[in-house]
Amino acid sequence: MERTDRTEKNNEKWFKGAAFEGAMDPEFTDIARGFLCGDVLSRGCLTDRQRALVTLTALTTCQTLDNMAAYTEAALGAGATPEEIKETLYQCTPYIGMERVWAALKEVNKAFQAAGIKEPCRKQGTVTEETRFEKGLAVQQEIFGADNINKMRDAAPEELKHIQDYLSAYCFGDFYTRGTLDLKMRELITFCAICCLGGCEPQAKSHAGANISVGNTREMLIDAVTQCLPFIGFPRTLNAISCINEVTR
């Protein structure tokens, strides 16, 4: 299939023919639509649902929210449930910060209302105030290895032990233990969010390895970063690929 045919097909499939519609510059629309719909959405091993959730991760992280409603609608059309969409944004929180996620959630909720989706979605939390640390630490150890996590916690100076506790209870306890998304999808979202931030290569390498440990593949990581490319540009994409290479070669 020619690129122009793929562009037309995916523009209709994902955006009802309206990708970048209304832009002030028609030449930009042609270039952007061709790259997103003709190239990026036409390659790789990710399912449409995974592509859609990765895209929402990139938009949320980069705070490019003007068209969040259109991409939310596209995600619903690709088979993502409202709960999966919400959980994708929630999963980004420990890595990109509360306010970015809050801003994105407001746009997603508007899109849900426009689509007639009633709020709130089913609650997904599985921990209590008493269990969030214990269960979070268990997930952290499952992903990165108990010995590695225990050594990291033991080596932390007294003035930084609270950060290790927050990491276990908040990042892993409050978020990784939630329902709907499995560990493989949560780690893929985490990796993409970190790569979209830029300047976090040590963490990107760590979570590239974590993705492999939970069962994701090198091909999936490359395809997920490729899906982010139209929204983050080549420098951050190439840095992410370097991190993947260091872990998987």
Strand-helix topology:
Layout: H1 3-15, H2 26-39, H3 48-62, H4 68-77, H5 82-96, H6 98-114, H7 132-144, H8 146-155, H9 161-176, H10 183-197, H11 201-214, H12 218-232, H13 234-248
Radius of gyration: 19 Å
Beta percentage is: under 5%
Global outline: globular
Strand tally: 0
Along the chain, the helix and strand elements come as: HHHHHHHHHHHHH
Largest sheet: none
Distance between the termini: 33 Å
Task: Explain what the structure shows.
This protein is globular. By secondary structure, it is an all-alpha fold. The mean pLDDT is 96. It starts with a helix and ends with a helix. It has helices at 3-15, 26-39, 48-62, 68-77, 82-96, 98-114, 132-144, 146-155, 161-176, 183-197, 201-214, 218-232, 234-248.
Concise synopsis of the structure shown:
This protein has 249 residues and is an all-alpha fold. The chain is built from 13 helices and no strands.
Name the features.
249 residues, mainly alpha, 73% helix
